[in-house]
Amino acid sequence: MDSENLYNVAKNMRRDILTMIHEAKSGHPGGSLSAVEIVAYLYFREMNIDSPTDENRDRFVLSKGHGAPVLYSALMEKGFISKELIGTLRKINSKLQGHPDMRKLPGVEASTGSLGQGLAIANGMALAFKLDKKKNRVFVLLGDGEIQEGMVWEAAMLASHYHLGNVTAVIDHNGLQIDGRNSDVMTVEPIDRKWESFGWHVLKANGNDFYSLEKAFEKRKSVVDKPAVIIAETTKGKGCSFMEGKASWHGKAPNDEEYLCAMNELGGNING
Amino acid sequence: MAKATREAYGEALKKLAGCNPNVVVLDADLSGSTKTAEFRKVCPERFFNVGIAEQDLIGTAAGMAIAGKIPFASSFAMFAAGRAFEIIRNTVAYPKLNVKIAATHAGLTVGEDGASHQAIEDISLMRSIPNMTVINPADSIEAEQAVLKAAEYVGPVYIRLGRMAVDNVYDESYKFEWGKGVELRKGADVTIIATGIMVQESLKASETLSEEGISVRVINIHTIKPIDKDIIIKAAKETKAIVTAEEHSVIGGLGSAVLEVLSDVYPVPVKRIGVQDTFGESGKPKELLEKYCLTEKYIADACRKAI
Questions:
Q1: Do B90 and A111 touch (CB under 8 A)?
Q2: Is the CB of B29 inside 8 Å of chain A's CB atoms?
Q3: Are residues B251 and B123 in the same domain?
Q4: Are residues B31 and B132 in the same domain?
Q5: A72-119 residue pLDDT tens
């Protein structure tokens, strides 16, 4: 897929994320929007995935499970799930649970939502693939606030100990978490040196820029015997001017007016 | 012959190494004690030490299960069920992953290590999680078969194992039946429903009571969840009084499970032998069982009172 189409995918994903959350009247727009380019790049450029059931597909684990809408929007763009589900997010009897449920929705590789657990799940998958001499790669997206969870570092140790070259973590580094800036709540810096010291190959990218992401993912391929982490600088609420850079948009839905405003910014009317 | 259920776990894993290529074993730096080292000796390529990191132990096992493996993850019950509870709940049980948590050193009979290492809440914790099966074998023969059956069953299983060597309740002819209680002794006046190492104590109590002319039925509940309701209700109807016995808190364990079954269907007097809402302490296993009222003597007393 060329870059122009990636931009279109990203735009559609943003519109779907906002529509889902607006319809649900709750959810997490900030951290869903910040990760759009990362998830779009993975599903449409980086990962080997043509079907959600193909045994040889690469796997994506959304460790920051509250970003569920960004995953759902990618699965819709891929055609793995129906766009008709868009109005069901967080509603009773829905496949689109508030946090991803692998048993309810095809394409969700792991049930997540409780922070800090996705990297361990990804490692387990990667260990199994290595054991079976399979080529599947595993990608996992973590929030920057999420790495405050101690279990992340248990898993970080394991991935380097077992030389999991088939694991790539991406950190959605938007600098914000529910209670405010990471630096005010609990310092996570220096993120790069922390991962380096745990034996990881560390790369940096602008996580809202496809060219920058491409460079990082391509460089990652040169290291085969180590897990790699891409620290992706992003803007929380990216693409929606009144949400950008605001922690207050971590976990609330736009009202009707805000929704219309956001959809206008993302081009065209609400119907597309 | 006296043998710890954890020893039987190690032997079962060795068998699984040979017959089931999908079985993988994970441990958190306790492989000598949990006996997963037995598996490592014969199948090092499918053994994974995660270090002292029980949350990661369970999370990694979950990922391996998603990728098609049958992981057995082991640590002491305190750290497997306790420290990793939320990972078991959200990442293993919620998506019903095929992870087997074999937790050793459960209960007071950990002994000298003391209260910090004596899990007396693990059955309660594991039993409350949807999708979870909870098994507490009475001896090494039952433990080995339970482990082998757990590998065949698809879904999360918690297997509770002990440190201390225990006398055999069964002989080699025993056939473990998933989810089925076992009537070990017929009786008409009172039923002792026991699990784990308390099964042996209950059998001893029933002999003492028999000499006094009290006819005691003894049932072993190895599968605490899903529990065999029929055998419990039948016992309540036929013997009119029940005593439960477990090396676990009286809050939330086997006793509670029996009460839940009976209160819905056929309430009868139930006395619960177990740890009475207190922590343990250091000491020899037998001393601890005596101090915390978990021996045949206390079970027999409870039976006399229950009738």
A1: yes
A2: no
A3: no
A4: yes
A5: 999 999 999 999 999 999 999 999 999 999 999 999 999 999 999 999
Cis peptide before B95 (omega within 30 of 0): no
Domains of chain B: total? 2
pLDDT value for B1? 75
pLDDT (tens digit per residue) in B45-92: 999 999 999 999 999 999 999 999 999 999 999 999 999 999 999 999
Domain co-membership, B186 together with B156 = no
Q: Could A124 and B67 be called an inter-chain contact, meaning their C-beta atoms sit closer than 8 Å?
A: yes
Q: Of the residues B160, B194, B220, which one is the last residue of a structural domain?
A: B160
Which chain A residue lies closest to B99 (C-alpha atoms)? A124
Residue length of chain B: 307
CATH number where B95 lies: 3.40.50.970
Cβ contact (<8 Å) for B56 and A154? yes
Residue range A191-220, pLDDT digits in tens: 999 999 999 999 999 999 999 999 999 999
- Report the residue of chain A nearest B86, measured CA to CA: A114
Place of tokens 């959605």: A172
Provide the pLDDT for residue A272: 42
State whether A150 and B86 contact (CB < 8 Å). Answer: no
Query: What whole-number distance in Å separates Cα of residue A113 and Cα of residue A125?
Result: 18
- Residue B89 belongs to what domain range? 5-160
- Tens digit of each residue's pLDDT (9 = 90 or more) over A121-147: 999 999 999 999 999 999 999 999 999
Q: pLDDT at position B301, please?
A: 98
Q: Which of B46, B63, B96 sits opposite A124 (nearest CB)?
A: B63
**Type of residue found at B53:** A
Residues 55-114 of A with CB under 8 A from B: 101-103, 109-114
* Residue B166 falls inside a structural domain: no
**Averaged pLDDT for residues B169-179:** 97
Contact B286, B2 (CB under 8 A): no
Asked if B245 and B273 count as a contact pair (C-beta separation under 8 A), the reply is yes
CB contact at 8 A, B116 and B78: yes
Same domain (yes/no): B223, B111 = no
Query: CB contacts < 8 Å between A and B, how many?
Result: 103
Is A52 near chain B, with CB under 8 Å?
no
Tell me, what CATH number does B263's domain have?
3.40.50.920
Residues B91 and B209 in one domain: no
Of the candidates A71, A212, A235, the residue with the CA atom closest to the CA atom of residue A140: A71
Q: Is the peptide bond before A190 cis (omega within 30 degrees of 0)?
A: yes
Is residue B55 situated within a structural domain? yes
B165 domain residue, yes or no: no
Q: Do A158 and B66 touch (CB under 8 A)?
A: no
Distances (CA, A) of A76 to A13, A93, A118, A198, A213: 8, 19, 22, 36, 22
B45 assigned to active site? no
Q: Which of B54, B144, B201, B296 is catalytic?
A: B54
User: What is the per-residue pLDDT across B224-279, written as a single tens digit (0 to 9) for each?
Assistant: 999 999 999 999 999 999 999 999 999 999 999 999 999 989 999 999 999 999 99
Q: Do A161 and B51 touch (CB under 8 A)?
A: yes
Residue B299 lies in a domain: yes
Q: Which residues of A touch B56 (CB under 8 A)?
A: 120, 151, 154-155, 157-158
